[in-house]
Amino acid sequence: AGTITARDTLFVYARIPDGPPMPVAVRKLMAQPLPREVTLSDSDLMLPGGGLASYPKLQVGAHISRSGTVTKAPGDLLGLSETFGPGENSAVKVVIASTVPQ
Q1: Of 18, 26, 56, 67, which residue is the least packed, with the fewest Cβ within 10 Å?
Q2: Three-state SS for 16?
Q3: CA distance 70 to 41
Q4: E strands of 8-90, at which residues?
Q5: d(CA 62, CA 60)
Q6: Neighbour-count burial for 5-42, b at 16+ CB within 10 Å, e otherwise
Q7: Measured distance CA(89)–CA(102) in Å, rounded
């Protein structure tokens, strides 16, 4: 947390485990403050469709981008939740604990 600056960007996203790399929903936020709660909803969907609850399993990820872009680059910070069923959980925890290698 001590390396995060006011210029960094936080992307919080929902993705299909073992699925395509494109997330099904995403929010772009200022990286600070952390820790914090972020809510992903059907209004954050990348493509119109049945909504987050229509997916049998999802993962929530967090990406702190140093450049402000969604493309992961060396030095960016990452975290990914355990797989869960959207109808089973209303809250998941993501720990940002890895770095994109050089």
Answers
A1: 18
A2: coil
A3: 19
A4: 9-15, 25-30, 59-65, 77-80
A5: 7
A6: eeebbbbbbbbbeeeeeebbbbbeeebeeeeeeeebee
A7: 35
At residue 47's C-alpha, the angle toward residues 29 and 33, to 5°, is 10
84 contacts 57 by C-beta, under 8 angstroms: yes
Q: What's the CA gap between 28 and 64, in Å, rounded?
A: 10
Report strand pairing: 25-30 vs 9-15: antiparallel
In 3-state terms, what secondary structure has residue 23? Answer: coil
Residue 1, pLDDT score: 67
**Single pTM value for the model:** 0.93
Q: What is the pLDDT of residue 92?
A: 93
* Mean pLDDT score across all residues of the chain: 93
For residue 88, name the pLDDT band (cuts at 50, 70, 90). confident
- Per-position b or e across 82-100, b if 16+ CB within 10 A of its CB: eeeebeeeeeeebebeeee
